[in-house]
Amino acid sequence: MVAFRTNSAYDRFWEGRKQLSSIEDSITNAIRIFQLSIHPKNEQERLDRAQAMKNLVAMAYSIKYYLLAKPNYFSEKMKGLVSPKILEIGGVDSSSPLDEKKWKISDNEMRSRGIFTKDSLNLPITLAFEITNYLEYIDRSYIVPTVYLAMYNSVNIITNAFVGCIRIQTTPIPHAYNSHLHMICTLYLLSIPFSLNGEALVTFLVVQFIVTFMLLGVLSIAEEIENPFGSDKNDLPISAYCDNLYEHLTFVLSNEKEL
After folding, report:
1. CA distances from 128 to 54, 223, 230 (A)
2. Which burial class, exposed, middle or buried, applies to 229 when counting CB atoms under 10 A from its CB (0-12, 13-18, 19+)?
3. Closest by alpha carbon to 60, among 48, 77, 47?
4. Phi/psi at 211 (5° precision)
5. What distance lies between CA 63 and its chain's CA centroid?
6. What is the extent of the structural domain holding 120?
7. For residue range 117-169, what is the model confidence (pLDDT) as tens digits?
8. Is the dihedral of CA 91, 92, 93, 99 positive or negative?
């Protein structure tokens, strides 16, 4: 049962990594396709294309903050990515600084989030609508149909991965299973002294310590990694993934003429 508990927790951790990797890959590919396959005819169309690519990276950041139970949060980078209209919808003053270091996030708070909540803006879904609206707006006469379909699919994959992350986060291991497993481990540890009856005190203490450390340590690890979305060292480095996408976008936009 302990092995099953640990394997289940790691499966959730690995599934979370796959979902984030899917988001990262899709955004990277979408930026490349947008840049090379959409040919603006004037300055306004060029700005619209750039904003669509910024919205893609903003989706990654918005998914990060949504998973961290801060769905209405706009970091300084996000303020430079999203349009003023999105900032207005989110009720954020683009001139007001926000400090991420003051956050205190618990697993219960993160797990209380669903796909839609009444008290907050679902920014990832909103940005997905914005990007889809842009794809409907552009002139498709010069775009190969398969390439245009790939643009649409990229948005769909990002959205599906976001929903997958929410599924992992809001579906914890059943409480009854956890309680029963802890009870079994406790009874087993309490029974060890009876199985070592007659052994030297030092031997008894060493065996008791090792077995207790192993069992409780494995259970603690399982509880720690079953929710891979957080801000401590045992969670997935979502910030690093988002920053990589931001740097990629910055490179593409700064070398737009060469590309």
Report:
1. 12, 33, 23
2. buried
3. 77
4. -65, -40
5. 6
6. 15-172+237-256
7. 555 568 898 899 999 999 988 888 888 888 889 999 999 999 999 999 988 88
8. positive
pLDDT score for 31 = 94
Q: Across residues 77-94, what is the average pLDDT? A: 76
Find the radius of gyration of the CA atoms of the chain.
Answer: 24
Instruction: Give the tens place of pLDDT for each residue, 40-51.
Output: 888 898 999 999
Is residue 26 pLDDT above 60, yes or no?
yes
> Angle at the Cα of 214 (from 208 to 220), degrees rounded to 5?
125
In a domain, 85, yes or no: yes
pLDDT band at 171 (very low <50, low <70, confident <90, very high): confident
Residue 219 belongs to some domain of the structure? no
State in Å, rounded, how far the first CA of the chain is from the last one. Answer: 55
DSSP H helices in 112-174:
123-137, 145-169
Q: What is the domain count for the chain? A: 1
Would you state the pLDDT for residue 220?
Answer: 82
Tell me, yes or no, whether 24 lies in a domain.
yes
Greatest pairwise CA separation for the chain in angstroms: 89
Q: What is the DSSP letter of 72?
A: T
Residue 198 within any structural domain of the chain: no
What is the torsional sign of CA 102, 103, 106, 112?
A: positive
